[in-house]
Amino acid sequence: MRESRRLVRQQSKDAAARERCKVLAGVAEMARELGDKAWCNGEGFSLADIAVGCALGYLELRLPDVAWRAKHPGLARLAEKLAKRASFLDSIPPAG
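Structure (tokenized):
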């Protein structure tokens, strides 16, 4: 989140909380839209799944402390399914 990139003494806890709320709201909306479906749009893998998978991957990379999986099991199932695809495996950033 943007606020965390500032010097510690210049960070606003209120601004950080607002940013975190926006992230959580975005995840909740993705989960709501997905519902109990296997895929985001239609009966198979689509561009919508790629977008959601990329967003969740970025969230896990940059904000690993955001525990969204337990609250949104349908989204977690989709993320697990996408993580097994070669295209997602090939795009994992190198460690370090």
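The mean pLDDT is 90. Helices lie at 13-34, 47-62, 73-83, 86-89.
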